[in-house]
């Protein structure tokens, strides 16, 4: 581990790999430090499935066109203005050039997956998912001569003024300081450190589930912030969705998602509804439900459907709890039976009297409750057909947004301005663009665009 | 939910997780077939298992492989279910248990086959005859090989009938047969969905090596079979008797067939030695290996027989070649050879299911 490298990349997910590949292609000797063991390499990229991409016309598997302005508007709607517009637009524009680059470096795309047709124009799906993408990039990087170390956790960044001089790496119980001429930090957010989440959110964060890798503990981010690096973002902001409450604490990934919310009523552990389940189609609402559930007692919710709705959404990994009456369902879910019965009854009474024919599960059907608070503004069909089914919901954090401030060259900033030889890419800097909310497939866009830029910039610095 | 056997139950557990993920949809026919359903009964799993060509793309792409608690290994789960189904459908069942699980038994069958042919050559020495008929008369060969061909065919027929009932197959049309034939001929399900091939001999690296080796074996075998069939037709219909010249149907089919069969089997053995045994059915690895060796030996001994025409080696080579063919034929319903029949049946059933769902 003593050979001096031109470039050290900290992290082993999509952004890190893009930086390593760009650096190696521009002639750098590159060392990539992945804190996870090989089987869990790739950070959260392992769990991803698509890449949101701007395109002027049909591109690879993408249909139609998706312009910069439309993409930007979609982003603005979810972040509610909390973004760096300049960086965001640059990222969106660059995405169009990234897709052919990804294909040239081993990534394969497939048409939109069954059940996700609404994304066929905007999001290019990876054949085999994110782990296949990660595998392809590791192959490409290794063919380019990139040295990869697994189980190699970076614990400290050595700074001397505005320069990074080395990184401390812990591997197999030993710590060594490695030197290089340029460094890229792509080691993710801090959501794997539950204590840090608790400092930001309070003790309720103990009830959060982490959808992705347990290896993103924010060690490098913390170290850089402690040494005065400029930060962006709010530590409570993250990409969080409502997932099956029975999911594993870490790494449950895509199969723990629940798409039943729009066809259900969602109650808290008191048996009371708390938000409009039918506000919009699910791809536009899934990302707000993590926070909604996080705000409920014990950070738990329960989605209740009847047999009419059971097959309207994608199957998920755990079967629902089933019962013949609402009271029995409440008992099985651990909810107060009388209250749940009253909630369902008042919801049913507020539903339009003859919904048959006007219920359209795949589009906003305007089938709204009357006189109910909170209302359900679409798909308000009475829950009357036994058996009844329930799923528990918990907040599932994908990644946190507090990160390092970067400019459009991915350069990291300290208290006295930019660092001379340090760049950042991926979730560790995504808060620069994502102030809140989330847009499906945009994490991979940020990682790819900034990973490539970071690798190119680092290589130019070394040359 | 519990299915008919623990192996089917475990496969269904994994399939339920795959159905919630769907990332692998583009790799092969298994996933689109799976994603049409929400719940899986034994027959559904049996169909998926026999449709799976064990390309392993889904394993290396899977974020839920061990040590993850979901412990997915779909290629292995389906290989186990497939293996179990062949043993369940075989008639008689006991024979399948022996030959699928024991390479020694299969090798033993080969030895017995060869010994039988040596004995036949010695005991039934013809008074006259040309080429290899000087060693064993045509009548004696027919007496041995006609039952050795028809009996396994009957047994396979019974197995396929049981398969068809379990997977809920319906009336087969020409369109279904053509669709299945196209798929088998190009080995589409080992192409990785985009022609990049499978993940076999070098972890997650895609390669067409296995697809091409398997194609060589399949086409080689079919050419060899065509060679024998054309010889039979020439013998009985046109009264043209072996030995045949190079420019005759039996040789024009047989020589390239033998070369393909030998080369393909060699390739498959080389690949199989490098692949991860844990992604198949490990208990039958040895018997599968002996089976591929048997296929290769059949092709190679046939070529050798031709190469040494007219020499003293012919009697011994003929006994080895015909002994290998005999062992291959007789063990067909109970060895890995059976997979070809069930695979085609699964492809036909898949064509039916697609047909039914297309508006």
Brief overview:
The complex is a heterodimer of chains A (463) and B (359). By secondary structure, chain A is an alpha/beta fold.
Descriptive notes:
Chain A: InterPro entries: CobZ, FAD-dep_OxRdtase_2_FAD-bd, FAD-oxidoreductase_2, FAD/NAD-bd_sf, Succ_DH/fumarate_Rdtase_cat_sf. Chain A: Residues 6-435 form the FAD-dependent oxidoreductase 2 FAD-binding domain. Chain A: This is FAD-dependent tricarballylate dehydrogenase TcuA. Chain A: Keywords: FAD, Flavoprotein, Oxidoreductase. The complex is a heterodimer of chains A (463) and B (359). Helices cover 27% and strands 22% of the residues of chain A. Chain A contains ten helices and 20 strands. Chain A has helices spanning 14-25, 68-79, 85-104, 130-143, 194-201, 219-226, 289-294, 326-333, 337-350, 442-462, and strands spanning 5-10, 30-33, 50-52, 109-110, 123-126, 147-149, 152-160, 163-171, 174-178, 180-185, 209-210, 231-232, 238-244, 265-267, 301-306, 321-323, 388-400, 403-404, 411-414, 417-424. Chain A has a six-stranded mixed sheet, with helices on one face. The longest helix of chain A is centred in the C-terminal third of the chain and has 21 residues, at 442-462. The model of chain A has no long low-confidence stretch (mean pLDDT 95). The mean pLDDT of chain B is 93. Helix content of chain B is 67%, strand content 1%. The two termini of chain B are 32 Å apart. The A-B interface holds A 39, 46-47, 49, 108, 110-111, 113-115, 126-132, 135, 139, 248, 251, 253-255, 311, 314-317 and B 16-17, 19-27, 32, 35, 38, 57-58, 60-65, 67-70, 193-194, 196, 204-205.
